[in-house]
């Protein structure tokens, strides 16, 4: 199909079960199927109707300084929602002929998409929610390049500059527009949880929804999708019609964890560190469901914040929860946190097993403290400016074999810095497990090597071995090849 030719509408027959969760409305645009792929032209709905010629040129620039590869890969990830694999390299190989171009019309722009996953379409039309996510990708990539990086407003050596960049991306995405009492529960957890844990996370979300709480997650499947689904039912029963389902991701992880259909506000942050800062700046309370190394990375990032003496007064309810069958998982987490970071770290985490109403009540109680704290100090309810994020947790960590080997996993440092370095170790394992560049590096040079104090390495080995045994490193049915090697 040439760029100027009219598309021919052909009915699609997607088999992806994620379609059952898609928005009721359908997007405009016609399509043509090629095997299990679809060609289509789609126009934005209500945002980013126009781009400058310079913006289009940069988006379609395939050089190392251009944005095309980033834009293409994020767009493919969004269209591949509900995928049966979390290996980014495998996804990009499966759809290696996928392409996206920008067409200019008198009334604005359209995207011309070639060889897109058929599951993103119903009867030849792109699912409306997926279409919104696609243009959220375009919005955030354009804004980050033009207003943050291209405008030289981001100094990666300065913590305040990084925080301002996080704020500006969230504000541009209209995530900070909410006017009301603190009610945002950030939910973390794995994308490869089992059915029992999924149903439990959904029940917790239901209890949150009944109490008028909104949900923010990493936007993917599993424990990121389940609380959103449950909260949606709770909101419906309470006749809440303007609930927020915020999904925050970043380019390195979006292919492995594509946005689920319930996300109503999708934000693409520039990297994992800014994604994590966005979570904690937005959060009024945090719930952690069972997960793997990515979830452990989030826990350690949070502890690195809360253990810093400057944040000692910050009220932030944090509840770790799951069904009774997952009790051993939380015992393992507690043993690792206590053994590496001590009693002060353990005291910031509350574990509630197999009791969704208790989780929701605990969070609501904590939100009252958060509201009083922010109100007394004239701080924003929508963005926690009072929280001090140590630079060790803001500086982007480039995962390489050398940087992983150089991590200081030793007790001869303040405990919050040890937490930050442990966070980087888990971030590296996530990279080796699912990110395209990490998977390729492991295939070429073997596993990343981690070294440190013997007792810390032992605790790491214990925890990671438990994750492997419990099937928490990959999607169910996938064989796991370790991306790490531990050396005492």
CATH architecture of the largest domain: 3-Layer(aba) Sandwich
- CATH fold assignment of the largest domain: Rossmann fold
Number of domains: 2
Number-wise, the strands total 15
| Beta-strand residue fraction | 5-15%
Verbal overview:
The protein folds into 2 domains: 17-137, MCP/YpsA-like, CATH 3.30.1850; 178-488, Rossmann fold (3-Layer(aba) Sandwich), CATH 3.40.50.450. Helix 4 packs antiparallel against helix 5, helix 5 packs across helix 8 and helix 15 crosses helix 16. A hairpin with a 2-residue loop joins strand 3 (99-105) and strand 4 (108-117). The protein is α/β, with parallel strands linked by helices. It has a 7-stranded parallel sheet, with helices on both faces. A 4-stranded antiparallel sheet has the order 1-2-4-3, covered by helices on one side. It has helices spanning 53-59, 68-79, 88-94, 128-149, 159-172, 195-210, 226-237, 272-282, 293-306, 327-341, 343-347, 356-376, 391-394, 401-405, 415-434, 436-445, 454-469, and strands at residues 31-34, 37-42, 99-105, 108-117, 121-122, 125-126, 184-188, 214-217, 245-249, 265-268, 285-288, 318-322, 350-353, 448-451, 484-487.
